[in-house]
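Researcher: Go.
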Amino acid sequence: PLHKKICDFAQECCHKPFDEEDGDDRQWGLLLAPRDGGKSTFFTAGHAIWVQLLAEREGYPMSIGMAHALKPKAAKLLGDVKWHWEANEKLKWIAPNLAWRDPQKEAKLWTKDEFSLVRRRYAREPSYTSFSLEASQVMMHFDIIYLDDIVIDVTSDTVVVREKVRRFFSATPALLKGLGWKRVMVAWTRW
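Model: Structure:
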């Protein structure tokens, strides 16, 4: 029931700005896909790399937040993206101005929870950061936030946990920067 309510809420949000009265153009994006449909690989990780390439073309240092209900899963999502920036020679060839030759040695920030790409302009936030219901982000601001499977069995089994999910979901738009892309992209497994 909670999963359906939040999915219905997210679907409704996809078709209107966060704050219609102010004319704010921040939008929700939603992908509902069946289990093993590739949503985390293609939508969350793939799209997060693609938008970074688009932003670089515009000279804009993109900051992306990637969240999952569980911290280890959020770190894995980030790890998938990180692997491409670290080891995918085709991506390095396409974006030599973003990818480090040897990120372990050259990058100022390269951890399992966050990392920064090469940047032409100063940016306070890392290029990518992972967070979760277990370890949410405070004082961070992102251009795009990917919420991947925030509602799962362990986040919907008690009233207390369901309320935490509602608060997390409602607070997410406040983590967006005032300028820039301003998107919350939601990917959930359709049951």
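Model: Residues 13-24 have pLDDT under 50 and may be disordered.
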